[in-house]
Amino acid sequence: MSSGGLPTRSITIDPSDLLELQKDVWSNQFAPVKLVMDGVTMEAQLRFRGGHTRNYQKKSYEIRFGDDQTLHWNAEFDDPSLIRNALSFRFFNLIGVPAPETRHMWLVWNGRPHGVYLELESVDRTFFNVRQIQAQSLIYATNDSANFSLIDPETKQTKKSLFSGYQLMKGSDATKTRLVNFIKRINRPVKQSLKVYIAKRLDVRQYLQWLAGAVLTDNYDGFDQNYALYEHTPTGQYRIIPWDYEGTWGRNPYGKLCRNDQVPVQGYNKLTRRVLAYKQYRQYYRKLLNKLLASQFTVQALDPVVEDIYSRIRTAVRDDFTRKWPYETFLKEPEVIRSYIEERRSILKKELKQWTE
């Protein structure tokens, strides 16, 4: 197999450490490895990452190295295009929502090729420093209990903890308390006092930009989980960052073709419903969606982005025999994505016309 010109990452791991990792694929325990990246050899720590994909033969990894640096290596095993996460995050950045930077890479494991991976920037201290964003806290939404509701999505009963579904990455117990109080408040009746509170504690315009991105990409798995929240230090307001967007652009998280109307124009979750309960915010959101449908969310705007990513990985994917999908399927995916964009535009334009104030 050939790297096809992609940057190469090489991992060396002791067989005993690898066996220890493989004993429990659901463990988040790290193993020591040697990492060669950009011609530099260094000590690092590696673990498995992901959800159902941990059971796959080709796994995804999180690697930590250097001065508290973290990268995510996604196998993108279910996605025949291998670009849906990359395309989604490129799109979010284009519409003004900070999202992780990505690059495709070639992984070598104990001297043997592991094929094409997507390297994703971690949402952490470095992420904020690079963008000169002041964040006093960071919270990951790790499962569908992170739906901003008082009700557990599984039991349909009141949650035992309103911090359920979240993982504190930066902050203290006071950070948890503030989020719990925020969730309590937004579940109160829709009144002017609630609108005042939301405007104080949530960067509403940034949230609606994120909502537009999630709706346009049709990511039904991105409203109750697969996002990060941070408190913007100068304003004290919550802002949101997207994460895990492989189930988008016409395919579900398992790579199956799906209907392109899974996510309604209004999106999902309790916070979204509360924000859109107010006419001022609905009007802003409508205007934003119409603007994006006329500009960035078009085949003309996105086709060059798709082709740019494809041109970088086409040779490596051809030579990668660890992939799940046939190379012929990979080559047809740009057309699947183009068809999705056209159909999704039509669906959303129709829904916007039917969505009454």
UniProtKB/TrEMBL annotation:
Alphabetical keyword list: Kinase, Transferase
Origin superkingdom: Bacteria
Name of the protein this chain belongs to: CotH kinase family protein
GO MF annotation, one: kinase activity
